[in-house]
Amino acid sequence: SYQRFVNCYHCFYNLQPQLTRSIYDQFISQLQESIKEEIQEVQNEGNLERLFNLLDKIVEEAKDREEPAWRPSGVPEEDIRSTMVPYLLKHRSHLRRVLREKEEENKKLTESVLMGRKRIAELQQLIQDRQQAWQ
């Protein structure tokens, strides 16, 4: 505030109050301009406008979601657990289903192999019987 400025430069203010006000006004305007330039430079360097637009887009998309957004708790184990456990449970159920399907397929193939071996044994027996009958 101007009053703080006056208190810092009290002796100068007592000699020329109007000049002190002019210096204060000029100082404030240059300070504001400098801050605006710094903000613009940071925006240009970091491409913040694009990032802010992307963030706005994410916020708009999240409005339709029913489940709460993921927020880190600060404890890595809890954060990982909260995101990975549901995924791993889902993956485990998928793997169990695939395993069941493979076990059923293997059972059918085993039955088919046993039937083939049985048919081969029957044919070998038939061949031996015909061979003995021929001799």
Automatic annotation (TrEMBL):
GO terms, biological process: cell division; chromosome segregation
Subcellular location: Chromosome, Centromere, Kinetochore; Nucleus
Superkingdom: Eukaryota
Glycoprotein recorded as keyword: no
One GO term describing the cellular component: MIS12/MIND type complex
Keywords: Cell cycle, Cell division, Centromere, Chromosome, Kinetochore, Mitosis, Nucleus
UniProt cross-references to Pfam families, sorted A to Z: Nnf1
Secreted is among the record's keywords: no
Main localization (coarse): nucleus
Name assigned to this protein: PMF1 factor
Origin species: Elachura formosa
